[in-house]
């Protein structure tokens, strides 16, 4: 007679740890998302406060550069494309569109790897 309280004998697989390239994509995506939010906040501050909001735009630019570089490195873009992406960030509307496109590409790559991606970035599994 079999034991009715015996646990199932299913084989449980251990999930692989995420590679460092996916970690770069996840952290870069968070920086890019925060840079997009800061960009809109800085635009509102500029309308309300004036030229002091330039510091917020500068912080947005630096944050987006780091995020772009991390995403591009994690997605294994060649160095030439990384430089082009960083330079394109200096053009205001093009830079915002670039951030949105890179965030979208990062989201699809992270979801394929098993990450849960929300509004503010990826969470591990």
Give the count of helical stretches.
4
Main sheet properties: 2 strands, antiparallel
Mean pLDDT: 83
The strands making up the biggest β-sheet line up spatially as 1-2
Span between N and C termini? Answer: 40 Å
* Model regions low in confidence, pLDDT < 50 over at least 5 residues: none
Estimate percent helicity: 55-70%
Counted beta strands: 2
Task: Report on the architecture of this protein.
- There is one protein chain.
- With 125 residues, this protein is mostly helical.
- The chain is 65% helix and 5% strand.
- It contains 4 helices and 2 strands; from the N terminus they run H-H-H-H-E-E.
- Strands 1-2 form a two-stranded antiparallel sheet.
- It is elongated, with a radius of gyration of 20 Å.
- The mean pLDDT is 83.
Condensed summary:
This protein is mainly alpha-helical and 125 residues long.
Topology readout:
Layout: H1 20-48, H2 54-74, H3 79-88, H4 92-112, E1 116-118, E2 121-123
Antiparallel strand pairs: 1-2
Helix pairs in contact: 1-2, 1-4, 2-3, 2-4
Task: Give a quick set of tags describing it.
125 residues; two-stranded antiparallel ribbon; 4 helices
């Amino acid at each position: 007679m079999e034991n009715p309280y015996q646990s199932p004998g299913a084989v449980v697989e251990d999930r692989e740890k995420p590679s460092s390239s996916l970690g770069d994509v996840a952290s870069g995506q968070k920086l890019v998302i925060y840079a997009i939010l800061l960009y809109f906040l800085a635009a509102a501050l500029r309308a309300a406060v004036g030229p002091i909001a330039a510091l917020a735009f500068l912080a947005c630019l630096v944050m987006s550069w780091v995020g772009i570089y991390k995403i591009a490195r994690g997605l294994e873009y060649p160095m030439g494309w990384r430089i082009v992406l960083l330079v394109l960030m200096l053009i205001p509307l093009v830079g915002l569109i670039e951030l949105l496109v890179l965030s979208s590409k990062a989201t699809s790559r992270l979801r394929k790897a098993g990450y849960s991606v929300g509004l503010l970035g990826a969470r591990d599994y």
